Amino acid sequence: MRRFLVPAIGLAIVAFTFLYVLPRVADYGAVWDALQSLSPWQLALLGAVTVVNVLTYAPPYQVALPRLGFRRALVVSQTASAASYVAPGGAAATTALSYAMLRGWNFARRQIAVALAVIAAFNQIVLLSAPALALLLLTLIGERNALLQTVAIVGLVLVVLPVSAFVLALASRSLAVRVGDLAARLTNRVLAIVRRGPVGWNGLIFAAFRDDALTLLRRRAWLLALVTIAGHATVFLVLLAALRTLGVPATAVSGVEVFAAWSLVRLLGAIPITPGGIGIVELGLTGVLTEFGGDDAAVVAAVLLYRVLTLVPTIVLGAVLGLTWRKSTRIEIPEA
After folding, report:
1. What number of other Cβ atoms are within 10 A of residue 178's Cβ?
2. CA distances from 98 to 91, 101, 179 (A)
3. Number of domains into which the chain is organized
4. What is the spatial distance between Cα 229 and Cα 106, in angstroms, rounded to a whole number?
5. Rounded to an integer, what distance in angstroms lies between the CA atom of residue 74 and that of residue 58?
């Protein structure tokens, strides 16, 4: 039951979305007609934003691991992201595969751990903060959305608490030791409930991690923040381009409303119920965008196109690169 319950729920959500909800919102024939109406310049625009989106996966890895280089950063980012789209676990699958590939290229364990943790932290901060920014922008133009307001408040809490603890831990080595010991004890209690063994780290290891993280953040925090925001922004641009090219003008759904829908659903889709949030993202985006005033058929067509453009290129490219990544030469870096 434990093994098959979550996959069964995921399949039920996917079936419910694509076989019941979306056909009731818009006939798939009308959706297909909308897709066929795209002109060559519109296809070129969609292709351009898709390429830019794919290329922005690599820079966070390149910034966090300067000796990695853009080509290897693209390989690891696309392969790991493709795994998160097709395998259960979401971010866990991305982290595990990224670690294995980077170890295969001879990067030190601690260096990889710090880099992946910092990349994940910056991604989570942007992901959780986006709904609050969207709520602020909606308020400035005189609109409200109850669900977005709730998610924005929850997101801010989820950002403020761990970020505050992280900042306090970085502020003092002795405090980092105490925070690490406390985190280890709390983690062990949780693991005991699910009948798992204790963790193999403590406050001293946490303090060593703190020293390495501070070194990286002092040198490259601003650049890592910049490339992380750029990566999320290009995903939003793919959705905005899909909506505009398929006949959802700004007079029907403004750019602020599109951003609000995107930030809300992107956060909800991060919950690893289905791989890549399939079914959840389509259902959520369609519901919010049509509520804002978008035409049903055009919105469904744009949402489906957005999902194809953000999932399929990465899955295909990630599969190809994943099969050839071992051909890259190992980097000569002494083990830390």
Report:
1. 15
2. 10, 5, 27
3. 1
4. 29
5. 5
Q: What is the pLDDT of residues 3-21, one digit of tens each?
A: 666 556 556 665 656 555 5
How much is the pLDDT for 75? 92
Question: DSSP secondary structure string, 209-269?
Answer: HHHHHHHHHHHHHHHHHHHHHHHHHHHHHHHHHHHHHTT--TTTS-HHHHHHHHHHHHHHH
pTM above 0.90, yes or no: no
- Whether 336 maps to a domain, the answer reads no
Q: Residue 131: exposed, middle, or buried by beta-carbon count in 10 A (0-12, 13-18, 19+)? A: buried
DSSP letter string, 271-324 = STTSGGGTTHHHHHHHHHHHHHT--HHHHHHHHHHHHHHHHHHHHHHHHHHHHH
Using CA atoms, how far residue 265 sits from 35, 133, 154, 199, 332, in Å, is: 23, 14, 14, 34, 42
Q: Report the distance separating Cα 294 and Cα 296, nearest Å.
A: 6
335 occurs within a structural domain: no
Residue at token pair 């409303």: 257
Q: Which residues of the chain have pLDDT under 50?
A: 334, 336
| 8 Å CB contact between 112 and 64 | no
- Whether 4 is in a domain gets the answer no
Range(s) of the domain holding residue 59: 9-327
Residues 19, 298: Cα–Cα separation, whole Å:
18
| Whole-number Å distance between alpha carbons of 212 and 155 | 28
Angle at 330 between CA 328 and CA 331, to 5 degrees: 120
* DSSP three-state, residue 46: helix
* H helix or E strand, kind and range, residue 124: helix 109-140
Q: Which pLDDT does position 110 carry in this prediction? A: 85
pLDDT of residue 336: 45
Whether residue 249 is contained in a domain is answered as yes
